[in-house]
Amino acid sequence: MNTTTQPVLFTQEEVADLKKEIGTDSLMGQTIEKLKAELNTYMAMPIDVPGHGEAGGYEHNKHKQNYQYINLAGRLFLITEDEKYAKFTAALLSEYADKYLKFGFHIQRNTNPPGRLFHQILNEHMWLMYASLGYSCISAWLSEQERAHIVDNLFKPMLEMFTVKYGHDFDRIHNHGIWAVAAVGICGIVIGERKYLEMSVYGLNGDGETGGFLAQISQLFAPSGYYMEGPYYHRFAIRPLAVFAEVIHRHMPEVDIYNYKGQVIKQTTQALLATAYPNGEFPALNDASHTMGITDMGAVVAVSMYFKRYGFDKNLVGMADIQQQVWLNACGLALSRAHQAEDNVEPPFWPSVELNEGEKGDRGAQGFLRMQGKDKDIYQLAMNYGQHGMDHGHFDTLGISFFNRGQEVLREYGFARWVNIEPKFGGRYLDENKSYARQTISHNAVTVDEQCQNNFDIERADIVHGTPHFFIGEGTELQAMSAFANQHYPDTGMQRTVMMLKTDLLENPVLIDLYRLTSEGAHQYDYSHQYQGQIIRTNFDYKTNTELHPLGGNFGYQYLWNLARGEVKGSALVSWVQGNSYYTWHGACAAADSEVIFTQTGANDPQFNLRHETSFIMRTTGKDMLFASALETHGYFNEAVEASVDARGKLHCIEVLGHNEIGSVVRVTGDNACLTVMVSNQPNVTETTEHQIEINDTTYSWKGCLAVKQETK
Amino acid sequence: MNTTTQPVLFTQEEVADLKKEIGTDSLMGQTIEKLKAELNTYMAMPIDVPGHGEAGGYEHNKHKQNYQYINLAGRLFLITEDEKYAKFTAALLSEYADKYLKFGFHIQRNTNPPGRLFHQILNEHMWLMYASLGYSCISAWLSEQERAHIVDNLFKPMLEMFTVKYGHDFDRIHNHGIWAVAAVGICGIVIGERKYLEMSVYGLNGDGETGGFLAQISQLFAPSGYYMEGPYYHRFAIRPLAVFAEVIHRHMPEVDIYNYKGQVIKQTTQALLATAYPNGEFPALNDASHTMGITDMGAVVAVSMYFKRYGFDKNLVGMADIQQQVWLNACGLALSRAHQAEDNVEPPFWPSVELNEGEKGDRGAQGFLRMQGKDKDIYQLAMNYGQHGMDHGHFDTLGISFFNRGQEVLREYGFARWVNIEPKFGGRYLDENKSYARQTISHNAVTVDEQCQNNFDIERADIVHGTPHFFIGEGTELQAMSAFANQHYPDTGMQRTVMMLKTDLLENPVLIDLYRLTSEGAHQYDYSHQYQGQIIRTNFDYKTNTELHPLGGNFGYQYLWNLARGEVKGSALVSWVQGNSYYTWHGACAAADSEVIFTQTGANDPQFNLRHETSFIMRTTGKDMLFASALETHGYFNEAVEASVDARGKLHCIEVLGHNEIGSVVRVTGDNACLTVMVSNQPNVTETTEHQIEINDTTYSWKGCLAVKQETK
């Protein structure tokens, strides 16, 4: 035998440093305490290595827990020197070694080939990566015979399966592939067969281009580091990415992995973290759960790795504070110490960023604006003007989401799936995911003629992308972004410009939105807003329906109950309370008449698969059209203490003054003043482009992308 | 002038003790810190004493904040000796004294007469009580001239108004009356006119029976201490009650207030606290907000007073831990010290209690059962079998609510009101409060013939009440309560028996419910369950409606959308996920056929006044009828970490074996065993009553109120 008996991710000095954290109230001390308690609870149950089961079922969960606790128990043995953890790790691994080859393969159920433990090898990769890491922590403690049993009957057959039986899959450049190479590479180190590490890093061919980790990290991300499936999938890929990077750093220093390809590891980690809302949740871009956030283990590992390898950033300290744990190794320790040294840990406040998409960064972008209110509350506005997110993509180019006061205000529905709830269609994606959650109307966007963008054709959607127009992400008073999407509806061009504006007129930054459509022919335009909470008032009469019908028959409309509608002349006001905050939306369009429709999901949902969520839609018809709105955040409501402050807000109305190929001009009027907002509609606008528009004998002129003029009454 | 210059609620020694808490991390230290920060923020704004305004509007809120901060600033001046607090208090009081007599009276808007600051004198009473307390803390610091200005132009006119102009109201025995006497009595001490204290304690006549605090506390509560309007109103009355009791204790020791009438102060405080859910929220009995809890200032004051005056109780320490603050005086200090001395503060776990109603305790009761699960989670089950709660009463006799895992599971809707949200009908009760929230169908009860109990006639409802049958509140394995309501529907008797049962079959206590109806004629019975969350599965086919209609036309049914219905043979299963927990309901009835209807509120709600909440109703028709159900709490769901455990539960079904005037017998079957539950239906049952029922050749016999027999398969 020539297996190593060194832990893969620990030196003796590091172990000694970690040992000192036990019992302290540092994040690392708390992490150790918490994980020890969890492991002790788990160890109190009998060891069980079950056979095959369904995704989300008992067996599946048990195998998953087993690998997590093998990894954890190994590390805790090193750090605490308590032999019970080594015994547990050894016993569990030995039982797997006893049984593994006796398990047949699962029946193949999807495109991912089946393993012996799990229905798809993705999970088996995860199993091997963690089991190898845990094993490496106790291998010196094991007898040679024990080591041989585990290596010969468990690790080697797994490696054989991944690199030979499923060798054709091993070189695939795909986010799942990172798990495969991390598992194989790490297990190779553990059993002392470096060839597996080599093939994991450089691919089966050894060229570093057609497969392997280096090829993956070079090809999977845009130059900005953005991963096209969105943060929900990115945080899943970042886990093996960070783990394996750290392993390569230690065991293959010649690669200089943390500086590889212009620090692609740094770039993509930062790109993931910069999408997160201030409370640590990720916007549910594409198919994604609404609750996934930086407390996910992938993000915990990534934040600790990033801090250790790329240096101090107080946003990372803020994120660790939300995570309330660190990665249990030297990376996490560095972050924990920084956290402890900070007198006053503030929430993460990442700079605004436009993350380009596509291999060359030329296929649109995802824009993220962040601004702090007077009370230091962080506002975040995200807009999608990039690519379609592959098979998990949503048809929502120019869709936005908006967050403040600790909650998502203009909301993403996320996926239609009750993840891992076995009686709910096995926890898998539901039919309603395609027929509702991916449709344009389920987003904060404009739906044309009650149809989905790209006619819900993924192949078509994969070809097109949004076009960035301008991005102003630096200001503390005004930030804005603008983009075009001219290929997403037949014969219809679209441009959306969103901005956050802080003014002395208002207590908080206001979100201003100009959504412009151009077409030779007449269309119906539905400008929709997904909100949560209770309607407080409107400035127009509406009629609630005494019987409910679906709003439409297709493209997601079939799921919307048509609750109420009202005719609007001029500026419409819809005000609601969500949590402790009031929101008042003023919306108008460049048409004499429009209507506002209130909806709730749940129609044609024969198995109660959808959550019941609400929206309001401003609907009008026309050829060229401009929608404009201003969303004011104001006041405070707390039912428990029966307090309500400023339930009305300060803005009065919004007017579309005019729009053409040169620019759009809208006016927002409030208690003491009005704001004239002028936006360039010229694709090639620069900072010096002069604009001039004549509207009703008034000339509006400005230079550059955007101008806001405030007049006091 | 003969005004006292002593603080009403502080001795010098007490002030010195409180001073020591500044900067410590005790609850008192934290309380001081938090209140200081709040006051400093308030003091940073210009002083404003506005004129009249609407309830919930700016002026109303400002006057309210002003009295709170006068009281607080006075105390903080004593404790911190920082003169800025005295100056602020003095400046604010002086400005009120400048303006008060120049304010006319508000226009009378309801039965409560108007004040000069507020639209109803209730608020003016609150103002005076707090302003007097705050004034007493700085009066020694004031010049004699300043004192005279405040006393002559503010306090004396107020006292005159309350005791002369509105003297006819002063002696009313009513919960609002406690505020009146507390304000007048305390202000009397402050200005050195003891006659006001005397009339506040003994009434205008001085007899202690027709008016005044002693008469109020003797007559407002049942012998159990329960206040018939329910905890939401009780916690509002308990605030002046506790404050004034403490004042009387200090300034009229001869009354021996804390021992008055068999310790009625203790009794009623305990009765209030014992209704609270384990998370500190009050069940929304009668008109009540769904979020009101023990963090309300009244409960904070009451918990601190109760601890100081009636001694150590670890449940009070647990409550203080939820409150995260104490009353800022010697009472709170005692509690804070106890809290600090406790190594491991546990959540409050009050004993189960049956709180009788009516002056003599013979008009039914409110039952509260509490049981701890194996994981120490506290389950609470409440049933109303008492009186109608006067003008705020709900028509829900035999209605239940059920709480575990930190959330209300079988839910109260609470009031239909957006409290203090001025644009929402002035923050007042909405029409839907009567037409929906008070109706029987909005509760967890049986509605007969789609009508409301007592035909929604308050006068009729005031006459009748529930009849306790038995109450078993001691057991750690089995607790139960049973009651009759035979006068609430024409020609229909009702009996409900609910129990919580802990068995080795199940991970958690199960709620078992037997709801029996008896009638000569045939009726439609709707057995309704107000739940929240997402339906996971059923064991029967149901059809969701492709267009929605209201379920009925009256008595609250007009607000229920009929979402779906399914036919049931035998035992029905409805399972849902709420938060992190799964719930599975098994229900059956003594009829061959029944149906289950799924509803959501929101029909006929032209102004979006209602929250959208869901229920399921088991409907059947018959004469005598027994509904039986078992509600299992199981598993764990956490979307953020994508974990789902035991989404199915262990129970299979429930059967109604039989019921008659002797008893009811039902069987609950689970994975490994079945439970036979036998309940006495005999009104005069005792512990020794023998019961025997023959059903399908099997004889079921038991002794006493209730028996549960477990058979393993």
Give the structure's gist in a few sentences.
Chains A, B: This is Chondroitin lyase. The structure is a homodimer of 713-residue chains. Chain A has 713 residues and is α+β, with helices and mostly antiparallel strands.
Characterise the protein shown here.
- The first copy, chain A, has 713 residues and is α+β, with helices and mostly antiparallel strands.
- The first copy, chain A, has three domains: 46-220, Chondroitin AC/alginate lyase (Glycosyltransferase), CATH 1.50.10.100; 224-350, Glycosyltransferase (Alpha/alpha barrel); 353-712, Beta-galactosidase, Chain A, domain 5, CATH 2.70.98.
- In chain A, 32% of the residues lie in helices and 26% in strands.
- Chain A has an eight-stranded antiparallel beta sheet, with no helix packed on it. In chain A, strands 6-11-18-17-14-13 form a six-stranded antiparallel beta sheet, with no helix packed on it.
- The radius of gyration of chain A is 27 Å and the shape is elongated.
- Chains A and B meet through strand 12, strand 13, strand 14 and strand 21 of A and strand 12, strand 13, strand 14 and strand 21 of B.
Quickly list its features.
eight-stranded antiparallel sheet; alpha+beta; homodimer; 3 domains; 713 residues; six-stranded antiparallel sheet
CATH topology-level name of the largest domain in chain A: Beta-galactosidase, Chain A, domain 5
Mean pLDDT of chain A: 96
What's the CATH architecture of the largest domain in chain A? Answer: Distorted Sandwich
Termini of chain A, distance in Å? 86 Å
Q: What is the highest CATH level, the class of the largest domain in chain A?
A: Mainly Beta
Class by alpha and beta content of chain A = alpha+beta
Largest sheet of chain A: 8 strands, antiparallel
Amount of beta strand of chain A = 25-35%
Strand order of the largest sheet of chain A: 7-8-9-10-19-16-15-12
Tell me roughly what share of residues is in helical segments of chain A.
25-40%
The domain tally of chain A reads 3
Rg of chain A (C-alpha, Å): 27 Å
Q: Which residue ranges of chain A are poorly predicted, with pLDDT under 50 across at least 5 consecutive positions?
A: none
The total of beta strands of chain A comes to: 27
Count up the helices of chain A.
Answer: 17
Which two chains have the most extensive interface, and how many residues on each?
Answer: A-B, 54 and 54 residues
What is the general shape of chain A? Answer: elongated
GO cellular component, one term (chains A, B): periplasmic space
Protein name (chains A, B): Chondroitin lyase
GO molecular function, one term (chains A, B): lyase activity
Main location (chains A, B): periplasm
